[in-house]
Amino acid sequence: MAERLYLFDTTLRDGQQTQGVQFSTPEKMAIAKSLDELGIDYIEGGWPGANPTDSEFFHVRPQTRATFTAFGMTKRAGRSAENDDVLAQVMQAETPAVCLVGKTHDFHVTTALGITLEENLENISASVAYLKRENREPLFDAEHFFDGYKANPDYALSCVLAAHEAGARWVVLCDTNGGTLPKEIEAITRAVIDAGIPGDHLGIHTHNDTGNAVANSLAAVDAGARQIQGTLNGLGERCGNANLITIIPTLMLKEPYKSAYEIGVPQEALISLTRVSRQLDDILNRVPTKSAPYVGGSAFVHKAGLHASAILKDPTTYEHIDPALVGNERVVPMSNQAGQSNLRARLQAVGITLEKGDPHLSEILDAVKEREDQGYAYDSAEASFELVARGILGTLPNYFDVERYRVISERRRNAKGRIVVESEAMVTVRYPDGVEKTSFFKNEHPQEMSDDGPVNAIWLALQADLGPYQASIEPVKLTDFKVRITQGGIEAVTRVIIDFTDGEKRWSTVGVSSNIVDASFAALLDALVWKLLDDGVRPA
Where would I find the H helices in 264-396? Predict the structure, then answer.
């Protein structure tokens, strides 16, 4: 019978320690909702009283199926748990569970806290016992435990045993500095169990400073720990925490964990994993990591022709799981390394089936290779590739033609003598019935010294009013903009790759020109045409 493993998410607390990350209350609410729907067992909301946002969040916190948890620290020496004002603020949050961090490394006790080892033990015992008396589920985060164990195993063990004996539901072993390796994690975790703390009361909390946070978490499970703490996308201080987005599918899809353990995430929720990962990136205004295991945009990309040929015959030849299980998708990109196997697989993915030997295959392949010689790159701009292929096949609708565009970017002094920069753009399109329409946009920021630039101006002018197509293109947003100079000197060519989303799908396009604005315009235009094509919109 499968043993139960528990997942504890600390994105809203430890994840917020990431440089440049500061969640608002609505953002915390959205993340908590996604975690709860995913099936996480514990959601740590933050440290009540530590900052205004955390205090507000606990005041309006959502009702969750998961055990909602407040974070705090053990009481200070020289006072009772009942009279510790910091601990009082944590208790006032009235969460069903409370996780308290405490010192377990003798060096930190005497140097950082400046108290005796015995006083620290009393702080741990009294704090955990107080939570228990107040009918809260107590969790104890044993800070610096692995470093402390290596320095003074007897004292480190006495700390976690004190928490366990005082009534802690979970004693969580923390690799706070992230420097411990998997074999050490496993051996020390076994030593803790041998010392008297059952595995079903033991958790693991790792950091990724050696790139081993996920491996260390699994090593602790192998040793007997039954709770794993981590964050979405491995968010966290320095190099991050253990990544639950990687741990969850590993536990559910990989042996021996798949057969030996059961977690709270149901199979039907696993397919939301990619969406949950990218939702966090959207909240943080970050570009998703393409190489992320399971959910990354490149996790199931097959560029080499040999790989693509095998994938067509049987996807398991080069894929460790079906990408659909985690809500991801297989991609066979086009590049100058591609053969007809790649091409047929890529066309098949967008609903175009061509038989082996079809003359169109050579024609499309030659066009891709010729354009890549000019500076284009289609392995990461799949939408533009599809438009090239459909153009050759004669299946690309003519939605509109751009007759002309104009962009002006002006740098001048304003009435106060300060330098300001303003951009404006005009785009004229002609529809199939011969009607022309011109749209204008001007970036105006009277309170600021600079605007959002000429590319933004031309994008907003192009998107401003496309008449019968407006409903389809309205939700389209830019998510990333990458520029590369592909040749040097006075013949330099600029390649622009732009990522887009409409809230549901993501796609990328490419433009090439000696003029960066013109290269950007080509990529922007491809994005809108592909969106209309993907939505099945008929030409006006």
Answer: 267-270, 273-284, 305-313, 340-349, 359-373, 382-393
Task: Identify the DSSP state of 331.
Answer: B
Farthest CA pair distance, the chain: 87
CA of residue 464 relative to chain centroid, distance: 31
The secondary element (H helix, E strand) that includes residue 73 is strand 67-73
Can you point out the beta strands (E) in 321-476? 401-413, 419-430, 436-442
Pick the more confident residue, 331 or 179: 179
pLDDT of residue 449 exceeding 80, the answer is no
Cβ-Cβ contacts under 8 Å for 290 (sequence gap 6 or more): 296, 297, 298
Helix axes 182-194 and 213-223, enclosed angle (nearest 10): 30
The full DSSP string for 305-317 is HHHHHHHHH-GGG
pLDDT, one tens digit per residue, over 289-298 is 989 999 998 9
The pLDDT tens digits for 64-99 are: 999 999 999 999 999 999 999 999 999 999 999 999
- Kind plus residue range of the DSSP H or E element containing 519: helix 516-534
